[in-house]
Fold this sequence. Notes:
Elements: H1 16-29, H2 34-38, H3 42-45, H4 49-58, E1 64-68, E2 84-89, E3 98-99, E4 114-117, H5 127-137, E5 140-145, H6 168-177, E6 181-188, E7 192-198
Parallel strand pairs: 1-2, 1-4, 2-3, 4-5
Antiparallel strand pairs: 5-7, 6-7
Protein name: Methyltransferase type 11 domain-containing protein
Organism: Sphingobium ummariense RL-3
InterPro entries: SAM-dependent_MTases_sf
Amino acid sequence: MNMRKGGLVPFYxxxxxxxxxxxxxxxxxxxxxxxxxxxxxxxxxxxxxxxxAAAAEWLQGYRSVLDLGCGTMILEPHLADTVRYYxxxxxxxxxxxxxxxxxxxxxxxVEAEAVACLGxxxxxxxxxxxxAALAKNxxxxxxxxxxxxxxxxxxxxxxxxxVNDFDSVGIATMFxxxxxxxxxxxxxGAFQMLWQLSR
Length: 199
């Protein structure tokens, strides 16, 4: 087994049953899968580049962005050079990273005009609470989610480390109950959707 960052194996180097076991343990304990993110490497994140570019289109005109669950900070290169970028993740990505475990604590409050939640909500045990907290502090959000009623949905959600299961109506209802209004939505690929929200 190939050990990487922090002595951990990247999540997708583990076999399917082990990934499911880790996810189900995290669900039972209401915890985050730290090992999923500590061992995150750039090759996996390359697949998120198109999503980041699409999200950045909806973030044009905003002078500052909080990137929640920033991963390898793949959103930043798609933003204008003048945008102040606040990365936030469960582990430090560089010396700017605001460290926050959203399954244990509320999202940080920074001086940002917009917040991005890309590839984040699937890993949260209480996503509505997080979205409600964001609605109190940020006027705009751009959010992605892999809905269960997509054109070609993933049938193996736990093997991806995902801890919840919304369809497109359910997640839209969750946004509204958390204090958001859907400005725009669009399909992104075969199994994912993007929303631009305003509070």
